[in-house]
Amino acid sequence: MNHLFDRLLQEGNGGERSLTFIPSAELEETEQEIHLKLEVPGMEAKDLNVEVTESTVSIKGERKSESKTEEKGVVRSEFRYGSFERVIPLPAPIQTAHVQANYKNGLLTLTLPKVQSAPQSTVKVNIS
After folding, report:
1. Between the CA of residue 119 and those of 32, 50, 97, 109, 116, what are the distances in Å?
2. Cβ neighbours of residue 1 under 8 Å, at least 6 residues apart?
3. Hey, what domains does the chain have and what are their CATH numbers?
4. pTM for the full model?
5. How many alpha carbons lie under 13 Å from residue 45 in its C-beta half-sphere?
6. Are 85 and 109 in contact (CB under 8 A)?
7. pLDDT digits over 83-128, tens only?
8. How far apart are CA 96 and CA 113, in angstroms?
9. Cα-based angle 53, 115, 30 (whole degrees, multiple of 5)
10. How far apart, in Å, are the Cα atoms of 116 and each of 32, 49, 113?
11. Model confidence over 8-52: pLDDT tens digits?
C-alpha cells in the first residue's frame, strides 16, 4: 500500500509532497501486437514525449495549469497539473521501428508489433 501512495505523491520545489497526475493505462496483447492506451486528457499531442525500447514504453508530458481569477468567491480545482513520467514494461519484445501512435480526444493509442521469432525447426546433424 505504501508503494501506491509513494507513486501518487511527488516532492515539489519546497520539499512538500503533493498529488501528481499519472495517466491511466490499458494494455492488450494479441499474437502479433501489443496495444497500449493511455488517458491524457487536456493535453495536445505535441506536449507528449513517447520513447519505446524493445521492452518498455516511456511517456513524459506536462499538463499546464490555467490561472483563473474570480472576484466573488473562491476558486477550487481538483484537476492535477504538472509534469509526469510513466514507464510501462512490455510483456514481449517489440519491433521499435514499426510502432504506430495516434492521439485523439485525450486518448493516446500505441500499436506495438511484436518481434516475430523464426519458426523453430529441427535439423538432422551428420556426425563425421
Report:
1. 14, 32, 21, 30, 9
2. none
3. 24-65+76-113 (2.60.40.790)
4. 0.68
5. 9
6. no
7. 889 999 999 999 999 999 999 999 999 999 999 875 666 666 777 6
8. 8
9. 100
10. 8, 27, 9
11. 444 444 444 445 678 899 999 999 999 999 998 888 899 899 999
Cα(94)–Cα(81) distance, integer angstroms: 32
pLDDT of 72 strictly over 90: no
Nine-digit cell string for 19: 498529488
Closest by CA to 61, choosing from 115, 108, 95, 113, is 108
Range list of H helices, the chain: 2-8
Q: How far is residue 56's CA from residue 59's CA, in Å, rounded to a whole number?
A: 10
What pLDDT, on a 0 to 100 scale, did the predictor assign at position 95? 92
Residue type, 85: E
Q: Are 84 and 23 in contact (CB under 8 A)?
A: yes
> Cα-flanking dihedrals φ and ψ of residue 106, to 5°?
80, 10
The residue to which cell 514499426 is assigned: 98
Kindly indicate the confidence band of residue 63, based on its pLDDT and cuts at 50, 70 and 90.
confident
